[in-house]
Design goal:
The structure holds 2 protein chains of 2 kinds. Chain A is mainly α. Helices cover about 70% and strands about 0% of the residues of chain A. Chain A is built from 11 helices and no strands. By secondary structure, chain B is α+β, with helices and mostly antiparallel strands. Chain B has 2 domains: about 230 residues, P-loop containing nucleotide triphosphate hydrolases (Rossmann fold, 3-Layer(aba) Sandwich); about 140 residues, OB fold (Dihydrolipoamide Acetyltransferase, E2P) (Beta Barrel), CATH 2.40.50.140. In chain B, the strands form 4 sheets. Chain B has a 6-stranded mixed β-sheet with strand order 6-7-8-3-9-10, sandwiched between helices. A 5-stranded antiparallel β-sheet of chain B has the order 13-12-11-14-20. Classes of the chains: A mainly alpha, B alpha+beta. The interface between A and B is medium-sized, with 26 and 32 residues. Chain A: Keywords: Cell membrane, Membrane, Sugar transport, Transmembrane, Transmembrane helix, Transport. Chain A: This is ABC sugar transporter. Chain A: Its main location: membrane.
Amino acid sequence: MAVITSGVDTGRKVRWTIIDVVVVVYALVPVLWILSLSFKTKATLGDGNFIPREWSLQNYADIFTTNEFLLALVNSIGIALIATAIAVVLGTMAAYAIARLEFPGKSALVGFSLLVAMFPQVSLVSPLFDIERSLNLFDTWPGLILPYITFALPLAIYTLSAFFREIPWELEKAAKMDGATPGQAFRRVIAPLAAPGVFTTAILVFIFCWNDFLFAISLTSTTRSRTVPAALQFFTGASQFESPTGQICAAAVVITIPIVLFVLFFQRRIVAGLTSGAVKG
Amino acid sequence: MAEIVLDKVTKRYPDGALAVNEVNIEIADGEFIILVGPSGCGKSTTLNMIAGLEDITEGELRIGGQRVNERAPKDRDIAMVFQSYALYPHMTVRENMAFPLRLAKVDNATVEKKVTEAAKILDLTQHLDRKPSNLSGGQRQRVAMGRAIVRSPKAFLMDEPLSNLDAKLRGQMRTSVSRLQKQLGTTTVYVTHDQTEAMTLGDRVVVMRGGVVQQIGAPQFLYDHPANLFVAGFIGSPSMNFMPATLENGALSTPLGQVALGDRVRSAAEKANAPREVILGVRPEHFEDAAVLDEAAKARGSVFTAQVDVLESMGSEKYAYFTVDGEQASSAELAELAADSGSADVPSSGSQLVTRLSAASGATEGGSVQVWFDTEKVQLFDPSDGRNLTYSAE
């Protein structure tokens, strides 16, 4: 059997390897390019070499010596983490209700959350700007956290309710029969089983908040709450004739790192097939 | 441990559908009772109402003398085994079994002791640290039982606990469930659609149809004295043969020929005001090959000649199948039974007759054979409402 199919297998392998390589190269070349630029000196920035001829860490040193970038980094991490935590907690509860309970207005709720997700964010920027200024939320952490939660919630609810639907309802009944209150059944049986879904959602929401540029640039004005994607635009060179390309590239590399760490950290918790063995087939 | 009383318990869904209608059952302390019936008969709903997983619309449920209608499942002190087992996949076998005790805030030493005990009874000791996903079906089933027995509840509720196992394992588990229940002496309500489980496991059987209790009684009593057509057709495998018949002057004309009824049957039918058109029911074992009987025995019954369609030899006995010409017996009960067993989908002309003959019978497939049946043991049913015209409670 193996001998007969090995020819076919080799062909398949080669084909898939080529496709994989093309996809990876296509996705990674711009990233590597930015990485390369961030290590170049100012003089060699425009020389067109993919591998820097002169390696330098000057760009990294520059961005970390200015307060601007460090503060933006703190803002980014703080705002994204808080927004993610709140959105995931609210989303978990809402998704559970949508997946498990029958209540009046359920389809309206689902419809509205879809509507929020479909709404063009750019059309909300000016009203939000006015509202936040009159509520003194402009250029504050809550001023960004609130819109992030709003736009992350539909995503969270959709992802999580799919996970909740996967969990056999009988487990909850069993927990009730075993003497659990509804709260205990949720905490000790349902929530642990929904954990992969919660972590997946957390990753998606975190990336959404971390990468947002539109709200970050429109609803902030100082380093008090400006996040990194917005702060990058305010980088200036040493003189007006100098472009801060190298520094922007270095900053772009630095802000990718938390995302990579975040994904790696939570990925270990996404164990596929966690519910297997709960019920037969 | 406690007795469970269902007093006119009714379940009506918000859309008006009546799932369970005024069910009265008194379950004695330590009794093993079986709820049986085709799918959709309300047996699982009844069980869920006892469990507290579904609300009771009307009527009263008492456990140990106390009304528990309004109590949450956790306050009823009863344990349940689910058809799907519903084991917690993120916990080991030990944690699964300890879960009810942990929720009850039992101290660690007692938890350990009880789990070890239960594991020993169920032969799970070497699997205690494994996750449910690494267990076989039978082992998972035992873990589910273990989770129920650890906290010594007032009653066990079992919802088709064996239906996910393969046939051989189901047979083994059936005896072990029976043994376990005897050993623990805990009141048990067991739901099944399998009439073999119903016959072999319970002290008493409750047959349900369309949310209504048809008959309650010991398995053998239900078999010998079914209250109506539905119970007669549901209990027993292979099931009772039914055919249309006309009752005239104490004699019965049937597709099997004219039959002179025995005294018991005739007097019972008279007492019950039997209509002219009836349905005749004969169990397969009340047939016999006329050739193996002596004259005296033959005289107690009626003999007909027919051609054997199919012959199944079991070694200890033979099952001979005949086709009987003429109309099939028809009634709402029989239609429902046929739909439940799927036999309504099998095309056939005339009705089929299943007979159990002794191994000594010389019947051959395709050959003609003289078949005798015991006219004292036949049952007559009213086609309009299905009641057993020959029913006697003795």
